[in-house]
Amino acid sequence: MSDWSLWLEATGALAGAGGVGYAKARAPRVYWSTVGLPLTWGRFAWSYRSTMDVCGLTVQPTGLRAFMTRNLARREVRPVAPKVRRIRPTSTGLRVTLRLPAGLEPVDVAVSSERLRHAFGVQSVTVAETKPGYVELRMTGYDVLRRVRLPRKARPRDLVVPVALREDGTVFERDYRKMPHGLTLGANSSGKSMYQRNLVMGLAKLPVGLVGIDCKRGVEHSRYLPRLSALATDPDMAGRLIDALVLEMSERFDLLALHGVSDLWDLPEKLRPVPLVVLVDEVAELFFVTSKKEEAARDRTVMQLVRLGQMARAVGIYLEVCGQRFGSDLGRGATALRAQLTGRVVHRVNDKQTAEMGLGDIAPEAVVSATSIRVDRPGVAVAGDTSGGWSRIRTPETTPAQAAAVCREYAHLTPDLPFLASFRPPVAIPPMPTTPPSVPQP
Ligand SMILES: Nc1ncnc2c1ncn2[C@@H]1O[C@H](COP(=O)(O)OP(=O)(O)OP(=O)(O)O)[C@@H](O)[C@H]1O
Fold first, then answer.
1. Reported ipTM
2. Residue-wise pLDDT tens digits, 187-238
3. For residue 191, is it left (φ>0), alpha (ψ between -120 and 50) or beta?
4. Is 50 annotated as ligand-binding?
5. Which domains does the chain have, with CATH numbers?
6. Closest Cα to atom 26, ligand 1: which residue?
7. Which residues line ligand 1 (CB under 6 A)?
């Protein structure tokens, strides 16, 4: 086969020989940029006006405009469609900025997004308001969540970590300054650990302290040890660690009061304590008790965690909580804690109630979207915040070994925090090979 026909096959142009199917399945990004984009662009340009018309996205012209068209331009008076202001191709689709005519609002376009998706023959269309009077149609040419790759320029910065890709091809970022505390929910094998792994890989590269609470004996978090400032592996230790964090919070507030500011970020840089991200894996373990006498300790731990949730944002301590369920059935303080965790990510769940626990106070459609996540799509989740916005996301697939390697590489960024010293287990030394060393033969 010649080089030329190989290229044709790879890009899908060899339709007759099944090339399109091959390229769509194996290299959707290549297919999109070489074949899909020109086709979609052409279809869009050719059918834009009529599509808007049949989708009900036009308005009647004003009297003056109708008069001018009829009498001066001597043209037929037609309904007015949104004006296309900008068309921008991306590696995953097409972005079109529209100026809405008077009488149309962004929600009208959003309601028609499913019709537009079929009319333009694209994978998905999402509508975002960019400024008053303008919306952006974000079209994706292929299923970007099938095999997720974050764009190269998506790098962690400040306290912002790119963690996943949205359905519309944009990057989903976890911004701790905008949304200080987060909650990740999901059934077994739904992708919670993968989400946390991607988060830790990003956070590890930033000048922050990472604190792990993993009451499953540290099976998840012990991989991140070189980059952790503290790790609690059972509820008792977690209780003491949370107490230490509350004490640190009080000291940081004293520091703010001393300098007459109300936020850590208002302090001069050289006085500013390092931000801390507290990662809690399987939060239900903190609530479980096996005997009555453990209840007092459990209640104290939960209440201290609620205090962190309520106040610690101002002093740069952020919570990242993960669990399978998070309802009032867990025990006292559960709903109070959940209310503080503004950033919500819900993976596949076993029941609608769990989706409602995470997304019910965001949007009813988000709950429906979370309950329809397929079992064969681990890692897909619905991410929302309590401002009402939500989107479907998926993290890139990464291995525990990759996360451990990043934590080792950035171990030098682990801050020296004396108040956490007693919670920092010695970093594990790689195990010795089990086979005895070979003795050189004479
Ligand atoms: N974003 C993803 N892309 C591809 N595969 C994924 C993704 N997320 C998770 N998976 C697959 O799903 C499996 C389960 O994921 P993960 O361990 O993160 O689930 P979990 O919710 O933490 O489960 P558990 O609660 O049992 O610990 C992983 O082994 C991985 O192969």
1. 0.97
2. 999 999 999 999 999 999 999 999 999 998 888 899 999 999 999 999 999 9
3. left
4. no
5. 3-140 (no CATH), 160-423 (3.40.50.300)
6. 188
7. 186, 188-194, 378-379, 394-395, 397
